[in-house]
């Protein structure tokens, strides 16, 4: 992963976050010395062209962006993949069932700098995860499988990062540890804990992944750091997150 666009603090941590607009994005990324990746939600666009144009404006000012689905909406999987294929943004979020497709699409389009993640979900059962996170499969009975098998399936198609959502903050640390260890076992270098993460609870989440041996950690920190009145992601909250990162490593 050394040739990719994302900057990791101490080669370990990068925060995935949202920003209201380009100015807000520039401010928050600067506040954390570039160790953050701004998410661009594909759900907000009416067309692929609109999304591509929007992403390219941001790319003039920051090296890496994260193309997102929008609240994990599996129906946005193709929009996210297509926007990424025209922009090589550095990072794209994807459901379990579409990760392999997206990797192939990016490769065919010559996009060599973008990490594709795959979404798996907690089940409340230690060592078991839900992989039916796709547009159609998510409407059926949950496909609950052994975490080692799920992660090995992603390794089979070349996925380099696993998104674990919904974490509910620090309520699922034992389950997260099992996912992290499964990633390390097959050399998937990055893990992305997501859901309910705040400045107050992020430390044990990151430490759980580090202690399991994960090479890279990208926690997604969204609504908890957005000012409710202005809609802006708070620079002060970003600085607090940065302080926590410095405490850990």
Automatic annotation (TrEMBL):
Pfam families reported in the protein's UniProt record: KDGP_aldolase (PF07071)
InterPro entries noted in UniProt: Aldolase_TIM (IPR013785), DgaF (IPR010763)
Positions of transmembrane segments: none
Domain of life: Bacteria
Descriptive protein name: 2-dehydro-3-deoxy-phosphogluconate aldolase
């Amino acid at each position: 992963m050394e040739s990719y666009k994302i900057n990791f603090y101490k080669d370990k941590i990068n925060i995935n976050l949202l920003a209201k607009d380009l100015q807000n994005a520039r401010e928050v990324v600067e506040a954390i010395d570039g160790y953050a990746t701004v998410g661009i939600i594909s759900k907000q666009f009416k067309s692929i062209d609109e999304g591509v144009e929007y992403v390219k404006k941001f790319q003039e000012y920051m090296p890496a962006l994260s193309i997102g689905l929008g609240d994990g909406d599996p129906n946005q999987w193709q929009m996210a993949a297509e926007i990424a294929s025209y922009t090589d943004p550095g990072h794209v979020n994807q459901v379990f069932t579409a990760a392999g497709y997206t990797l192939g699409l990016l490769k065919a389009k010559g996009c060599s700098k973008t990490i594709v993640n795959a979404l798996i979900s907690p089940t409340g059962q230690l060592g078991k995860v839900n992989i039916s996170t796709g547009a159609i499969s998510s409407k059926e009975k949950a496909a609950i499988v052994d975490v080692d098998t799920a992660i090995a399936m992603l390794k089979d198609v070349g996925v380099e990062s696993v998104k674990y959502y919904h974490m509910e903050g620090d309520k699922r640390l034992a389950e997260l540890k099992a996912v992290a260890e499964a990633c390390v076992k097959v050399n998937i270098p990055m893990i992305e804990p997501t859901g309910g993460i705040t400045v107050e609870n992020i430390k044990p989440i990151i430490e759980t992944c580090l202690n399991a041996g994960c090479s890279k950690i990208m926690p997604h920190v969204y609504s908890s750091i957005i000012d409710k009145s202005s809609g802006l992601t708070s620079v002060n909250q970003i600085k607090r997150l940065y302080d926590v990162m410095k405490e850990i490593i």
